C-alpha cells in the first residue's frame, strides 16, 4: 500500500525511509518504555532497523508513517494503521513516541491524522487500538484521539517483558465526533 504524506501541523507524517534507521534504532532500544510497550527489543543493529522500516513500508494491509517535526524534520515517533481489512471494514492503529517528545499532545494528533486518512481513503469504518492496562499514557492518547473505551481483554498480548498483559480495547468509528486537538 502506498503511504501518503499527511500534514498534521505542527507535525508531518511521511513514509519511512532507510535514512530513519539510526533514529529508529536509538529511539526503540535506548528507551525503557519503548522496549517494554513498542517492541524495540528485537533491534540489535542498524540492519535490523532497516529491515523493520522495510516491513513497515511494504505491506499490503498497512500504512506506516514517520512522525516528524514539520519545521525541523526531527523524528518524533511513528504511527501505523495495520491489519486493514476492507471486507470487514476494520483496521488497527499503533504508535510510539520518542521519549523527548512525550507529553506534548503529539501522539493524539498523529493518530487522528492517520485515522482521518484511513476513513477517507479506504473502505474502513472502524479502527481499533489496544494497549496494556499498565500503559496508561496510551489510554490518554486513545481518548484524546477520539477513541471510545470498549473493554478489557485478559492476558491478550505478550509485551517486551515476556509477560502476557491484559489489554484495553478502544475503537473509533468513521462517524464518531472528530476530536478537538487544539
From TrEMBL:
GO terms for molecular function: protein N-terminal-serine acetyltransferase activity; protein-N-terminal-alanine acetyltransferase activity. Keywords: Transferase. The keyword Transferase applies. GO terms for cellular component: cytoplasm. Pfam families: Acetyltransf_3. The lineage of its organism: Bacteria, Bacillati, Actinomycetota, Actinomycetes, Geodermatophilales. InterPro entries: Acyl_CoA_acyltransferase, GNAT_dom, Ribosomal_N-acetyltransferase. Residues 11-175 form the N-acetyltransferase domain. This is RimJ/RimL family protein N-acetyltransferase. The keyword Transferase applies.
Amino acid at each position: 500500500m502506498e503511504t501518503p504524506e499527511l500534514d498534521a501541523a505542527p507535525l508531518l507524517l511521511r513514509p519511512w525511509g532507510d535514512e530513519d534507521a539510526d533514529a529508529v534504532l536509538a529511539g526503540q532500544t535506548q528507551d525503557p518504555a519503548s522496549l517494554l510497550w513498542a517492541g524495540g527489543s528485537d533491534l540489535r543493529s542498524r540492519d535490523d532497523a532497516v529491515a523493520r522500516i522495510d516491513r513497515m513500508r511494504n505491506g499490503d494491509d498497512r500504512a506506516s508513517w514517520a512522525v516528524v517535526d514539520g519545521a525541523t524534520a526531527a523524528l518524533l515517533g511513528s504511527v501505523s494503521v495495520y491489519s486493514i481489512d476492507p471486507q470487514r471494514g476494520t483496521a488497527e492503529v499503533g504508535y510510539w513516541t520518542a521519549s523527548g517528545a512525550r507529553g506534548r499532545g503529539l501522539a493524539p494528533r498523529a493518530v487522528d491524522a492517520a485515522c482521518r486518512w484511513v476513513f477517507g481513503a479506504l473502505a474502513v469504518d472502524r479502527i481499533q487500538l489496544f494497549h496494556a492496562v499498565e500503559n496508561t499514557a496510551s489510554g490518554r492518547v486513545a481518548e484524546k484521539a477520539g477513541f471510545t473505551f470498549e473493554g478489557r481483554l485478559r492476558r491478550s498480548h505478550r509485551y517486551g517483558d515476556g509477560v502476557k498483559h491484559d489489554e484495553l480495547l478502544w475503537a473509533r468509528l468513521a462517524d464518531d465526533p472528530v476530536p478537538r486537538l487544539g
